[in-house]
Amino acid sequence: MDISKKKGRKRSSDPQKWRQNINKVLRNTGNSYESKKKETVPPRQVKPPCTERCRLKCSEKFTSVQRQALFAAFWAIGDIDKQRLFINSCMSNVSPRYKYTNALHPRQSNKAFHFVMDGKTIRVCKTFFIATLNISDRVIRTVKQKCDKLGIIQCDPRGKHNNHRTNDESLILDIKKFIDAIPRIESHYTRQTSTREYIDGAKSIKDIFKDFKESQEKNNKPYGKYCTFYNIFTKEYNISFYYPRKDQCDLCLQYANSNNEQKNLMRGTFDAHLEEKTLSRQDKYNDRCKINENNKVLVFDLQAVLQSPRGNTSAFFYKSKLNSYNFTITLLNQKVDGQMRDSDVHAYFWNETDAKRGANEIGSCLLDCFDKICQESRLSDGDGLNLILYSDNCTGQNKNKYIVALYLYAVTHLNIASITHKFLIKGHTQNEGDNAHSLIEKEIKKNLKSGPIYCPHQYVTMIKNAKKTGQKFFVHECTYDSFLDLKKASRRLGIQF
Length: 497
Fold this sequence. Notes:
Blueprint lengths: L18 H10 L4 E2 L5 E2 L16 H4 L2 H13 L3 H10 L1 E3 L17 E7 L2 E5 L1 H8 L3 H10 L22 H12 L4 E2 L10 E2 L6 H14 L7 H10 L3 E2 L9 H7 L3 H30 L5 E8 L3 E3 L5 H4 L4 E11 L2 E2 L2 E2 L3 E8 L7 H18 L8 E7 L9 H13 L2 E8 L8 H17 L8 H8 L9 E4 L8 H8 L4
Parallel strand pairs: 7-8, 9-15, 14-17, 15-16
Antiparallel strand pairs: 1-2, 3-4, 4-5, 6-7, 9-11, 10-11, 11-14, 12-13
Helix pairs in contact: 4-6, 7-9, 10-11, 13-14, 14-17
């Protein structure tokens, strides 16, 4: 059974692909590699043996094929610790017949070198030994230094420190329980494709660790190090501190980060994308210029989740929060004296105890807005309204068969002649609804300076006071009875696609 690896907030490292580790493997196997000075080091080869003047006559004991076999076997090990063990096994102490030493500074014993060939131990000189393995005298001195009195070679300690790891299972469990207790929500804009969750950005990871430390000290429990808490938070949890806003287009960002060759391949698609963006915005501008008693243009969008309680104190950060939703419908006004008038904004507000944020809720708010527009219009029953709607491409809320069923119902039951829904180009869905959301966020930040937000009803007052000049936002507080079952209506109308 395949078990998918849990995705964390931090990218998981792959040390095998690190350049320094790749060069380390190449160096330990005798292959060509790139040094730290960016210089290419050639591969190792068997060097010429000792001369004929050698007292041990090493060249007569081994053929070139045997020397090459010893060289290949040594560098095939590929591990510096095992290679040092091999060198140490090929050395033995020389016991002279007479030895004169200083008692205070005794001289170390000389070393004799040998190779094992066909089960026989054959002694060779140091020059032949070094030339056959293509090592330096420094390697032999290092082996002597790392060999203790018992003849055991110390392992290479480089890159093998474990100071940042903990095996305390109870501490790890306490950290996970503390992180799991932090209230968080799913992504607002990318929840269909992203598993990342979001928490209030009032605290950093270090601030959360300080709170965890205080909690553990109160219970007389160990709290460990910050690096332990940080690794668990980033590698085992996919949590971020801010609400993600997809203000940048994926295609535009990909094109900007590509090289010249990739840009040439993408140029056709990118140019068509920019043209579609320009045409969609121009089309919206043209529709707005045609606004009159018969033609209306609406732009709608759902604001990011509003949570309560909300404040700058630690007590609110770890409390379970109630999510509230604000759906804004912007009724664009006509052009007067060459200038665009301020738009009328209808804000529909509810919390998660009354409804969710799917097609039923969006469609119910749209139907209520359609009914209000028809009641305010001065047209007779014979002359219906022509509504043009703009929104983003969210499938779960705007682009589905249940919204189409709503439009069919509105055209047949209200004084509406036609409904045209136009979707803005993905990545470039900035519209007048974002301006309303920005004003609301500024008002919320301003009120947070004077005190916390305890209940959802406080958001209603802030939305009403968000716009300081011109027409205020029309706020409609929705309850459970305000929403319709559009999915049931879609089945009754026979809209299936």
